[in-house]
Amino acid sequence: MDSADLLAHALGDDADRLGEQAKEHHNRVYLSMTGRLRAIQGARELLAELSSRGARVVLATSAPQRELDVLLDLLDVAPSVDAVTSAEDVETAKPAPDIIEVALQRAGVPADRAVMVGDAVWDVVAAQRAGVACIGLLSGGYGREELLEAGALVVYDDAADLLSQLDGSPISPRLAR
């Protein structure tokens, strides 16, 4: 969720007054804990397989560039990724469709040929608003029913599960075009 929306939801009338402090605290805590971050099981392999099949792979995150740099180092997927987005690319983050629209432009792929893989309700909503089909993963703290109710076509346990079922997934027909 866009940080401004999240802060407004969490802090109510105090969002403006406390928002910058909350963001600065988040940045300090996040950066101090980067050593604890781990790639989602099967993520590297899934991206490599999609790339090898000719998919244009874009990592579409609304994370700030500083956090994105940490994540890209952790993932070590540069050969499999065609483009990346970050918070600096848009005014408003998910659930607004802006970050997905930037990803589509960078991939050079129309919305009806794209599939987003996301693990949060906000990912699914943003994809829908951009006219992009979305697959859900249970790695983001949301349940299967929440993701399906938000509009995910199907939900897999994690990236490894999606990879093991890739040929029968909603991604496969789009690769064949």
Specify the biggest β-sheet. 3 strands, parallel
How many structural domains does the protein architecture include? 2
Summarize the helix and strand pattern as letters.
HHHEHEHEHEHEHH
Fold-level CATH name of the largest domain = Rossmann fold
| Radius of gyration from CA coordinates | 16 Å
Strand % is 5-15%
CATH superfamily of the largest domain: HAD superfamily/HAD-like
**CATH class assignment of the largest domain:** Alpha Beta
Question: Looking at the structure, what is the overall shape?
Answer: globular
Rounded average pLDDT: 90
User: What's the architecture of the largest domain, going by CATH?
Assistant: 3-Layer(aba) Sandwich
What structural class do the secondary elements suggest?
mainly alpha
Key features of this structure:
177 residues; mainly alpha; Rossmann fold; 2 domains; three-stranded parallel β-sheet; 5 strands
Give a summary of the structure in a few sentences.
This protein has 177 residues and is mostly helical.
Helices and strands, with pairings:
Blueprint: H1 3-11, H2 15-32, H3 43-52, E1 58-60, H4 65-75, E2 83-85, H5 98-107, E3 115-118, H6 121-129, E4 133-137, H7 144-150, E5 154-156, H8 159-164, H9 171-175
